[in-house]
Amino acid sequence: TGLCWQQQGDRAMVVPVPAPGRRSLARKDVKITQTCYRVLSAGGGCALLQLQPRTAFPEQLQVHLTLLLCPALGDHEHSSHVGRVLGVPFFLSPETAPTRMQVLDEELLSRLGLSPQQLHHLPLHIHLQELVLP
């Protein structure tokens, strides 16, 4: 997916660009990014994933997970771009979805031992396991 920086009010955000044009790629306004992933375990509405970025861009992993409609636990910025209608997730563009606290169902909050008021303390659950430098 293409990623770029975009000004949203008073702050800059990383946003996906589904079909970047040649001119924006040549000017380096948009960078083509790639992340490989593998589901290691799943259950209870959550999954443990192994992510392997093939390119480097700030917030790349968070944006790619959001595009897969499964934002990272604790991603309070990008998770607001996943909406649900009758339990079916869909992507909301950054222009139409204001950033808000991540919304988790009560069963997951209970398993995490958190109340809705404590949710803002939940850190981003993306952890580096290995760093390979060529």
Q: Can you walk through the features of this model?
A:
- This protein has a three-stranded antiparallel sheet.
- By secondary structure, the chain is of the alpha+beta class.
- The longest helix is centred in the middle third of the chain and has 8 residues, at 60-67.
- It has one domain.
- The chain starts with a strand and ends in a 22-residue tail after the last helix.
- It is globular.
- It has helices at residues 22-26, 60-67, 106-112, and strands at 2-8, 11-17, 31-32, 35-43, 46-53, 82-85, 88-91.
- Strand 1 (2-8) and strand 2 form a beta hairpin.
- This is RUSD3 synthase.
- GO terms for molecular function: pseudouridine synthase activity; RNA binding.
Provide a short characterization of the protein structure:
This protein has three helices and seven strands; from the N terminus they run ββαβββαββα.
SSE blueprint and pairings:
Elements: E1 2-8, E2 11-17, H1 22-26, E3 31-32, E4 35-43, E5 46-53, H2 60-67, E6 82-85, E7 88-91, H3 106-112
Antiparallel strand pairs: 1-2, 1-3, 4-5, 6-7
Which sheet architecture does the biggest sheet show?
A: 3 strands, antiparallel
Distance between the first and last residues' Cα:
24 Å
- Order of adjacent strands in the largest pleated sheet: 2-1-3
Indicate the radius of gyration in whole angstroms: 16 Å
How do the SSEs run, as a string of H and E? Answer: EEHEEEHEEH
**Number of helices in the DSSP assignment:** 3
